[in-house]
Structure formats: structure tokens, C-alpha cells
Design goal:
This protein has nine helices and two strands. The protein is mainly alpha-helical. It has a two-stranded antiparallel sheet.
């Protein structure tokens, strides 16, 4: 059943449109990065109040990949996942194929679970593909520096920058990719739930994208400190924890546990809703 769901996902032309949009995004990032490269670290030095000799040497392919990673996984991938998961139930219902599929002797719960795991595999595949393209394009265009200066977001422990070897930076980069694939699956479970409620794919997708970006905006407000750690967008996008040294394991485990609760809760809700849904 999972194989059947994956075949349906691969047959959707919109997946290839998303890949093309990501390539366009990287081209624009390259043009912007190349034009601002000479003055980027001078502005950074003034903001951080310290000087390190020829900082432009560290504007390498890994730096480019890390810069491209944030909008790829925080903005583009939520749209990709919401589109994939929104089509799994509501899209087939809209086309009229779901009723025929359910008419055969299959458990509705297994149908939802197979769709969920197919969405996870699709999400993981997109994440790895986007991460590899970011990295390979960055290395091809800008090379590799043996020492990596990883700029942080100053969201934890007052950390502004972490210094590490290129190999450790590579391991942290792919660990962040796996974190995002797991966190985005919680958004996929939410979309799957709404996909069992609505009869049109666009309604489920737009609802989840709206919820995600509303949560993202609320998390950025200065007076949302009490609820910020529990907002789905905040927990999803905390992969920056993997770049800290030493790793804050307690915080990381708390984030993963919260994501798992989101995932299991919405998946169970999707199973219950689909089992009692009247397919017309």
C-alpha cells in the first residue's frame, strides 16, 4: 500500500514544479550572494564588534548551503509538505478515485497509515535532495574552507558564532536535514488530518499553510515568550540546536518529544476522522 501511495506521489507533476522553483531560488540566492559577498562580513564585523583576518575566505560553499538551507526548509518545504499531504485524501476524494479504493476490502486505518508513511518518505526524499543540491552547488561555485564559521541566531545561550572543522560542519548539516525531515512530517500529519475533513485538496493545503505561517508570525512577536516553545512552527524550526557545541541534549529531546506528540496526535485524529467519514 505504501508503494502504491509513493507511485501516486511520483506521478504528480507539481512535485517537479517544486524542484524547478527550488533551482530558481538557488540561482537568485547565488546572484544576491555574489553581489554582496565583498561587504557582507564587514557589516557582520561591525555588528559583532570583533575582527577576524580576511573573513571573505570563509564565504565558501558550506556557508552558501547553510544560508540557503533556512528559507528552503522554513518556507519552501512547509508548502511542499502541505501540498503532498493535502492531496493524499482530499485530492483523491475530489477526483472520485478514493471511494473506489476504499470499496475494496482494506482497513481504513491502514490506508491512512500508508498515506502517512508515503508522505514521510516523500518529505525525506525532498529534504535530502534539496540539501544535496544546496551543498553541491555551493561547493561547485565557492569551494570549501577547512575552517567553518557558523553564524547562529542568538536564540540560545547568547551564541553568535560557532567555529568547527568542515567535516563536523558537514555532519551537522545533514543532521539538521534529518531533523527538518522529521519536524516537517508533523506538519504532514496535520495536513493529513485536514485532508480527511475537507473534500478539496486546496482547502486542506491552504488551511495548514495558514496555520503554519500564523504560528510563525506569532512566535516572532516579543510578547509571545510563554507560548512560543509550544507553537508548531517554533518546534519545527529548532534545528539550529544541532549546531551548538556541546549539544543541548535536554532541549533537543524536548523538541523531538513535542514534535512526536504533534505527529501522533494529528495522525490519530486523521485515522478516527477517516474511519467515520462518509465518502460520497
Amino acid at each position: 500500500m505504501i508503494k502504491y501511495e509513493l507511485i501516486k506521489l511520483c506521478a504528480q507533476k507539481k512535485n517537479y514544479v517544486m524542484i524547478a522553483c527550488h533551482l530558481l531560488f538557488l540561482v537568485l540566492c547565488y546572484l544576491a550572494f555574489k553581489s554582496a559577498q565583498s561587504g557582507f562580513f564587514r557589516r557582520f564585523d561591525r555588528a559583532m564588534h570583533f575582527q577576524i583576518g580576511n573573513m571573505e575566505d570563509y564565504l565558501d560553499g558550506f556557508f552558501f548551503a547553510r544560508i540557503a538551507m533556512l528559507p528552503t526548509f522554513i518556507v519552501l518545504m512547509p508548502i511542499v509538505v502541505a501540498t503532498l499531504a493535502g492531496d493524499t485524501v482530499a485530492g483523491e476524494m475530489q477526483e472520485g478515485s478514493l471511494k473506489m479504493y476504499v470499496a475494496r476490502p482494506r482497513s481504513r486505518s491502514l490506508i491512512i497509515l500508508s498515506k502517512f508513511f508515503a508522505v514521510y518518505i516523500g518529505t525525506l526524499t525532498f529534504c535530502i535532495w534539496f540539501a544535496l543540491v544546496n551543498l553541491l552547488l555551493g561547493i561547485l561555485l565557492f569551494g570549501i574552507s577547512p575552517t567553518q564559521f557558523v553564524m547562529m541566531t542568538d536564540r540560545l545561550f547568547g551564541t553568535d558564532m560557532v567555529v568547527m572543522t568542515w567535516f563536523r560542519a558537514l555532519m551537522r548539516y545533514f543532521a539538521s536535514t534529518l531533523y527538518f525531515s522529521f519536524s516537517l512530517t508533523s506538519l504532514g500529519a496535520l495536513t493529513l488530518f485536514f485532508s480527511t475533513i475537507f473534500n478539496r485538496m486546496s482547502a486542506a493545503t491552504v488551511t495548514v499553510i495558514s496555520i503554519y505561517f500564523v504560528s510563525y508570525v506569532v512566535a516572532a512577536l516579543p510578547f509571545s515568550e510563554t507560548i512560543r516553545p509550544y507553537l508548531i512552527s517554533e518546534v519545527m524550526n529548532n534545528a539550529f540546536l544541532l549546531w551548538l557545541s556541546p549539544l543541548p541534549l535536554n532541549k533537543l529531546l524536548l523538541n523531538l518529544s513535542t514534535l512526536l506528540l504533534y505527529m501522533v496526535g494529528f495522525l490519530l485524529a486523521a485515522v478516527l476522522t477517516f474511519n467515520y467519514k462518509d465518502l460520497k
